[in-house]
Design a protein that fits this description.
By secondary structure, this protein is of the alpha/beta class. It folds into 2 domains: 6-123 and 312-327, ATPase, nucleotide binding domain (Nucleotidyltransferase, domain 5); 129-307, ATPase, nucleotide binding domain (Nucleotidyltransferase, domain 5), CATH 3.30.420. The protein contains 11 helices and 12 strands. It has helices at residues 42-59, 99-107, 116-127, 191-195, 197-207, 213-217, 227-235, 239-263, 273-291, 296-301, 313-324, and strands spanning 6-12, 16-22, 28-35, 67-74, 78-79, 84-85, 110-115, 136-141, 145-151, 154-155, 267-270, 303-306. The strands form 3 sheets. A 5-stranded mixed beta sheet has the order 3-2-1-4-7. Strands 10-9-8-11-12 form a 5-stranded mixed beta sheet, with helices on both faces. Strands 5-6 form a two-stranded antiparallel ribbon. Strand 1 (6-12) and strand 2 form a beta hairpin. Helix 7 (227-235) crosses helix 9 (273-291) and helix 8 (239-263) packs across helix 9 (273-291). The radius of gyration is 21 Å and the shape is globular. The two termini are 36 Å apart. The model has no long low-confidence stretch (mean pLDDT 92).
């Protein structure tokens, strides 16, 4: 009797690597995770990943013939159509790496890759806050701004696999564009440069009152301030933190309005900082602010919700890529 089909999901990141074996529906049945060890030689790094994949299959008593598809969530930039990781800044020595072909040849299964934001969007759509919705925009606001777009249930990739780079839409203003902040990507006035985690952290370290609750939450050390300290202080009612979070929401709206006007999603799923801030501090006032910038009929039918997967995302992301297949375009 043949074994039931199993899929392999891999989340390949700059700080961690997660492998998850899933059933036909993508439910994880076995997994491994470790810190990313970078040799500087992508061939050696992929050899290690292949060895770990074989070990996970052996632990779960899965025969090679029962392995259905492999999905890999990778840091961008990437070319999903060719299965190539182009030149991610957080993977040393990885340039134009044919990840999909190498894994397919070694493990004997069709392999697909997606950049991590698209993989997360697929995961939330399949397993989390996007279930039951065909038109979805997912944004994560951790280090930077990552996004994935589903239209009619299919992932929009664009001509070269770079669709959804919403973090680098210009939202500069008010004031001369030449004075807009420089983004980590090198451009000025990007959405990410205002609301991305690293940019916001740097802004808070420059502007937080030395005797305020934000610095207190950071242990009295301005250089240790992170966005979560601002969120905690705002939740406690600190006036400066509240005003700063309100400013952050205004810039978030600056980025979301063109997204709504362009893609007309049924649901927007927000992750990371928004999830940590919660309903009262973030989502309720965000809906009010959006209501001032959108047509009333748009707001009436638009759902804005927090991401659900959280710590489960690394196991789910690669599996969602494996399951998505030809549904992307």
């Amino acid at each position: 009797m043949p074994q039931p089909l199993r899929h392999l999901g891999i989340d390949l990141g700059g700080t961690k690597v997660v492998l998850a074996l899933g059933d036909e529906a993508g439910e994880p049945i076995a997994s491994r995770r470790r810190a990313t060890s970078q040799s500087g030689d992508w061939r050696r790094d992929l050899d290690t990943l292949i060895e770990e994949s074989h070990a996970l299959l052996a632990e779960a008593s899965v025969e090679a013939s029962a392995l259905g598809r492999i999905g890999v969530s990778v840091p961008g930039p990437a070319d999903p159509a060719r299965g190539i990781v182009i030149n991610p800044p957080n993977l040393l020595g990885w340039e134009n790496v044919p990840v999909a072909q190498v894994l397919a040849d070694a493990l004997g299964a069709e392999t697909r890759i997606e950049n991590d934001a698209n993989a997360a969007a697929l995961a939330e759509a399949k397993f989390g806050a996007g279930r039951g919705v065909q038109d979805l925009v997912y944004l994560t606001m951790s280090t930077g701004i990552g996004a994935g777009i589903l239209a009619d249930g299919r992932l929009i990739q664009g001509a070269f696999g770079a669709a959804g780079e919403m973090g680098h839409m210009p939202i500069a203003g008010p004031g001369p564009f030449a004075e807009a902040p420089i983004c980590a990507c090198g451009l000025r006035g990007c959405f990410e440069a205002y609301v991305g985690g690293n940019a916001w952290r740097d802004h808070l370290r420059r502007t937080a009152p030395a005797d305020g609750r934000v610095v207190e939450r950071a242990g009295g050390d301005v250089a240790s301030i992170r966005p979560e300290h601002l969120v905690e202080a705002a939740r406690e009612g600190d006036a400066w933190a509240r005003a700063e979070f309100d400013r952050w929401l205004d810039r978030l709206v600056d980025g979301l309005v063109p997204v709504v006007m362009t893609f007309d999603p049924q649901r927007i799923v927000l992750g990371t900082i928004a999830v940590a801030a919660g309903e009262a501090l973030c989502f309720t006032p965000l809906r009010v602010k959006l209501g001032e910038r959108l047509w009333s009929h748009q707001l009436d039918r638009l759902e804005i919700v927090p991401a659900e997967l959280g710590a489960a995302m690394p196991e789910r992301a690669g599996l969602a890529v494996a399951l998505a297949g030809s549904e992307s375009h």
